[in-house]
Amino acid sequence: MEAFRNFVVQDGYFAIPMLGMSVVAVFLVFWRLLLNFNAGTNLDAFLPAVQEKIQKEGADAALKYCDSESGLIPRRLFTAGLETSKQGVAAMRRAMATVIELEIVPDLNFLLPSILAIAKIATMVGLLGTVISMIGTFSQLSKGGDMTAQSQSIGLALFATALGLVTAIPLVFAHVLFKTWIGNFEIKAKSAAHKLLLIMQSIKPAPAAKSKGDAATSKA
Question: pTM, whole model, 2 decimals?
């Protein structure tokens, strides 16, 4: 602990920005986790409720119900499909596919580029701090400095790389987990869209058959 404190004091021009990046990275990861939590929806309970709304009150009532939800699938995906339900199933399919590609997936990737950028920058800044500190140390040795005293400076220089790796490794791991979650959520959204289409097809009224009187009139 004492060695790390000495690193912060002596090489603060590297240590303080890197500690700042670590704090920002933690904030971004928790922000993304909160957004992911709010994006989720229990479809096992929600889909039957939507189906009941459509059957009893119609698509407009189901649209209002979905719009009042906070999850991405009801509020973005289902509302896009239900808004175009009067144009047919094909229009609903196109609308929901567009929403998944242009709205939902980009929203799920929000903050991920920043998290990955901090991970890469922290590693490079840590390495740069070590290199600069090592250059200064060997420069002092070339001038006849005490090897024992300079060995401590070499140890402090390595703290820069260590701090960069400590910041970067969890961020890269979090980025991979978020990307996996996004892929799974995209599959879940496409499955939900397909189920909504099946619900709409199952309640679509069959075309009315012509009565005998209409048939006779048409023949006349």
Answer: 0.79
